[in-house]
């Protein structure tokens, strides 16, 4: 029996209905005939949306329903493409509005276009609307056909029949308190003892709380329930607690139903009341002053109010009473307990081998059975530490009598196993079924990643955004913030795992989760890997149905590898992997036939990456990919982009990181008004940037801004959404200090790192007074965390530098500011951890001014500073604090300084400093 891939459309329909109601359609001044047909789509989609819940439930067991959903999914994509085409045309027309156009006087045009707006239409517009009209007719016909088919399939409308149950036949069965005494308790002895220690058996904790909550958190199949069963049935536990109850929650967190079940187990009586308050009063009476143990297994509730209501009777229990909660969701644990959750990790290969051997043959391990040992241990590794996987595969192998049959299982993909004999898929599906619809789409997209692939959290959110999966919410208006919230939710539900390398932003999926992603994505996502079937026609058939594609980048990717893409037109994603970290670009080559012949045919692409390839240029035809939201050509040899890139009006992300030969950006880059991320870090040859950046009001990422004869500081005025790091290079080119005022850095609250760079110090013709005004007016937000100033030629630093209101500023570097005669007062910056001062040649003496005028103060001076470096201060002669420890106001200077370096200060002959109580590294050179 072949497992049918699930179709999830609820979130997609929400987006489509929003687009149909969008003002973009009105802005386009659509001909009446076209607009009226679009208007009918809304009501038709609403009728289809009403039966989605019923259809998504039935699709697993009813193939015709799954086929109907596949057709509906294809239609939804095509409809979305058409709406995007209309919105793009509206955007193009608004940008071109200032340019005069010559209207056609043809009778055909007059019939199609309202007279009030005919002057804005060109022959191009006529052709556009004829093409759109034809597409609308075809989609309308398909919509009507699907509406008629839904009646034949007896799909129930939520509006009529109410919401359908989310439980399907392959969901996780209810658990009981009975442990499997025959399977052994492999590898969980330490975990059990750790939980028992938290339960304080035989004694009472010092807590004032009447009961404690111990959450056990881990991914599906890791053995949370088994561990809880063994704790529940432990003899010491039974002796310690007067009352015990085991409740498998799983479904909706119904406070009344759960309270009734607890009452029934503890009292051995049926509950005669159907009122929550009365049931809770009865439960409270029974457990009053008694020590109880309650297991709540498989909890999904994330609403604190529901837990608060359920737990009220528990307050009557005796001290030491315990509630153990098993869940896959960290958020669930956090609302039920104030103590850290107990995270249950996967088992080692040895323990998994024991579980597999027991369920397959009743053996303790494979040591005494050499014929099966190698294959059995290899199969155990496939389980990736999940006891549930080992138990399931062991049950399958029980019917396999010889090692060849075991070898066949080893070489099979787990999703190819017969559904009725496979417990892994239903176990993982349970987690998937409990996901909101929008998260299902995000998770399925990750099927593009191969197994054991480390992906970057920030990059994945950019991809989700480009694909149109994210929508602003009331609490998170920026799509990226919505994306990070969704990512964290999937992480908390164990769909993702932190990287084994410990990198903060890197994550991966467990192999079984990767299998699940591929299963639920079905034909929508296609991975062109070496293990795929070699038949080109088979791949082409798969690609014709796919919307997203990925492939592992090879050293030499020729046109033959991409033959299957010939004739493919509906792809939205062309993604070589790895995306995030690649070896040097010289190692990877992509044939020009792919770049110049294949890619321009993929007109519907939203995501296009060529990062890491040794390519010299992009074709001008790249400008025809009007739907493109994400273009990544990082780490290539491209020297400049074609001007047509500035016609990609939908582009949100343009990544040019480490394009070390890039010399210029398109002249009309400012037309990319939807651009949110322009990453030009590492573009060493980029010496100037075009005018018009101020039009990109949505821009968040701009690692550097190169000022020149054209581009001025005032272009920053409209970029109020900038985040992260910004380097302003070429500040010596600013001729009018008021441009710095207009840059309005103070209001850029999300800017965390700022680097200010003037020109070479060799130019003595620079206006030092203007430079002093400029740096004064470039006062950043007090949210700044890192500041670097290079080659500044003013004689004093700005007054805002050192202001205690910069309470988050942790790192300051002042480099080659050779004309400054004194250092800024930095001693009262509460978070400053690292201070680097280099090449300030005008300073001869340093006194109390560095620590702060008027000090000592009540508080410490440089209270957080850990690293202090002075380098190449060639005129510096004396450093004295003139401080007496007998001063009654004195506390400490540099109380946390651990690393202190002075180098290249040949004239420094007198240093008088207080004690450095935390110093660990001291370097004095020259």
From TrEMBL:
Coiled coil, from the record: 38-89
Residues making up the signal peptide according to the UniProt record: 1-23
InterPro entries in the record: LRR_dom_sf, LRR_R13L1-DRL21, NB-ARC, P-loop_NTPase, Rx_N, WH-like_DNA-bd_sf, WHD_DRP
GO BP of this protein: defense response to virus
This protein's UniProt keywords: ATP-binding, Coiled coil, Leucine-rich repeat, Nucleotide-binding, Plant defense, Repeat, Signal
Domain NB-ARC: 211-355
Protein origin, superkingdom: Eukaryota
UniProt domain Disease resistance protein winged helix: residue ranges: 448-517
Alphabetical list of SUPFAM superfamilies matching this protein: L domain-like (SSF52058), P-loop containing nucleoside triphosphate hydrolases (SSF52540)
Domain Disease resistance N-terminal positions: 12-102
A GO molecular-function descriptor: ATP binding
Region annotation Disordered: where it falls in the sequence: 162-181
Residue ranges constituting the R13L1/DRL21-like LRR repeat region domain according to the UniProt record: 713-839
UniProt family annotation: Belongs to the disease resistance NB-LRR family.
Name by which UniProt lists this protein: Disease resistance RPP13-like protein 1
């Amino acid at each position: 029996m072949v497992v049918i891939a699930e179709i999830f459309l609820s979130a997609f329909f929400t987006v489509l209905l929003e687009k149909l109601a969008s003002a973009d359609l009105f802005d386009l001044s659509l001909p009446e005939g076209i607009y009226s047909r679009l208007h009918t789509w809304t009501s038709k989609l609403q009728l289809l949306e009403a039966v989605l819940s019923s259809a998504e439930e039935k699709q697993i067991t009813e193939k015709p329903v799954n086929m109907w959903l596949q057709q509906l999914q294809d239609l939804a994509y095509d409809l979305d493409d058409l709406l995007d085409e209309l919105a793009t045309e509206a955007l193009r027309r608004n940008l071109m509005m200032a340019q005069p156009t010559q209207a056609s006087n043809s009778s055909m045009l007059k019939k199609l276009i309202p007279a009030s707006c005919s002057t804005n239409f060109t022959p191009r517009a006529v052709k556009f609307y004829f093409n759109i009209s034809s597409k609308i007719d075809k989609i309308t016909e398909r919509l009507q056909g699907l509406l008629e088919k839904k009646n034949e399939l007896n799909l129930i409308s939520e509006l009529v029949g109410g919401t359908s149950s989310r439980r399907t036949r392959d969901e996780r069965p209810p658990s009981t308190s009975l442990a499997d005494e025959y399977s052994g308790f492999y590898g969980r002895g330490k975990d059990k003892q750790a939980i028992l220690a938290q339960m304080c058996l035989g004694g009472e904790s010092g807590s004032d709380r009447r009961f404690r909550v111990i959450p056990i958190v881990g991914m599906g199949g890791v053995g949370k329930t088994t561990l809880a069963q063994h704790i529940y049935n432990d003899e010491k536990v039974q002796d310690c607690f007067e009352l015990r109850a085991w409740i498998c929650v799983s479904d909706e967190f119904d406070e009344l139903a759960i309270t009734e079940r607890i009452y029934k187990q503890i009292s051995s009586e049926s509950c005669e009341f159907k009122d929550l308050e009365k049931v809770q009063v009865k439960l409270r009476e029974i457990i009053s002053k008694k020590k109880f143990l309650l297991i709540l297994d498989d909890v999904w509730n994330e609403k604190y109010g529901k837990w608060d209501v359920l737990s009220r009777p528990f307050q009557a229990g005796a001290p030491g009473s315990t509630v153990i909660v098993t869940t896959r969701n960290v958020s669930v644990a956090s609302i039920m307990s104030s103590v850290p959750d107990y995270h249950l990790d996967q088992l080692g290969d040895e323990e998994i081998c024991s579980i597999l051997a027991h369920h397959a043959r009743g053996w303790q391990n494979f040591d005494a059975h050499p014929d099966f040992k190698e294959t059995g241990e290899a199969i155990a590794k496939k389980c990736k530490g999940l006891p549930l996987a080992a138990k399931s595969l062991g049950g399958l192998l029980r019917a396999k009598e010889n090692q060849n049959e075991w070898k066949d299982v080893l070489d099979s993909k787990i999703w190819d196993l017969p559904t009725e004999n496979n417990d892994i898929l239903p176990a993982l599906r349970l987690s998937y079924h409990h996901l909101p619809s929008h998260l299902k789409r995000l998770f399925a997209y990750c099927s593009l990643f191969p197994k054991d692939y480390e992906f970057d959290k920030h990059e994945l959110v950019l991809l989700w955004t480009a694909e149109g999966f994210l929508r602003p919410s009331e609490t998170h208006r920026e799509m990226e913030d919505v994306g990070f919230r969704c990512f964290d939710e999937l992480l908390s539900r164990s769909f993702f795992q932190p990287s084994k390398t410990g990198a903060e932003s890197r994550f991966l999926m467990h192999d079984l989760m990767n299998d699940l992603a591929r299963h639920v994505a079905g034909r929508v996502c296609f991975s062109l890997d070496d293990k795929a079937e070699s038949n080109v026609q088979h791949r082409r058939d798969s690609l014709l149905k796919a919307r997203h594609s990925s492939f592992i980048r090879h050293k030499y990717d020729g046109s033959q590898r991409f033959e299957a893409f010939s004739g493919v037109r509906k792809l939205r994603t062309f993604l070589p992997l790895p995306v995030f970290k690649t070896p040097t670009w010289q190692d990877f080559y992509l044939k020009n036939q792919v770049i110049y012949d294949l890619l321009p045919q993929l007109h519907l692409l939203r995501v296009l990456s060529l990062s890491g390839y040794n390519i010299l240029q992009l074709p001008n035809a790249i400008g025809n990919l009007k739907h493109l939201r994400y273009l990544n050509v990082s780490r290539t040899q491209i020297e400049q982009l074609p001007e047509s890139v500035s016609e990609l009006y939908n582009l949100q992300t343009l990544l040019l990181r480490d394009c070390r030969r890039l010399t210029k950006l398109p002249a009309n880059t400012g037309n990319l008004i939807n651009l949110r991320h322009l990453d030009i870090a590492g573009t060493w040859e980029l010496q100037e940037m075009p005018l018009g950046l101020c039009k990109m009001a949505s821009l968040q990422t701009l690692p550097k801004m190169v000022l020149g004869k054209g581009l001025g500081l005032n272009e920053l005025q409209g970029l109020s959404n900038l985040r992260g790091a910004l380097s302003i290079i070429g500040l010596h080119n600013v001729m009018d200090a008021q441009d710095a005022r207009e840059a309005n850095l103070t209001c850029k609250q999300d800017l965390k790192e700022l680097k200010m760079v003037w020109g070479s110090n060799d130019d003595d013709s620079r206006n030092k007074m203007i430079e002093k005004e400029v740096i004064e007016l470039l006062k950043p937000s007090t949210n700044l965390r890192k500041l670097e100033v290079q080659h500044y030629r003013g004689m004093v630093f700005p007054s805002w530098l050192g202001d205690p209101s910069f309470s988050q500023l942790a790192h300051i570097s002042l480099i080659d500011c050779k004309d400054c005669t004194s250092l800024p007062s930095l001693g009262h910056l509460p978070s400053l951890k690292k201070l680097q001062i280099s090449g300030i040649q005008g300073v001869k003496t340093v006194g109390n001014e560095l620590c702060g005028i008027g000090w000592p103060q009540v508080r410490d001076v440089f209270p957080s500073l850990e690293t202090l470096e002075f380098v190449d201060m060639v005129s510096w002669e004396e450093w004295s604090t003139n401080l007496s420890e007998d001063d009654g106001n004195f506390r400490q200077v540099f109380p946390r300084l651990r690393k202190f370096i002075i180098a290249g200060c040949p004239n420094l002959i007198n240093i008088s400093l207080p004690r450095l109580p935390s110093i660990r590294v001291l370097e004095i050179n020259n």
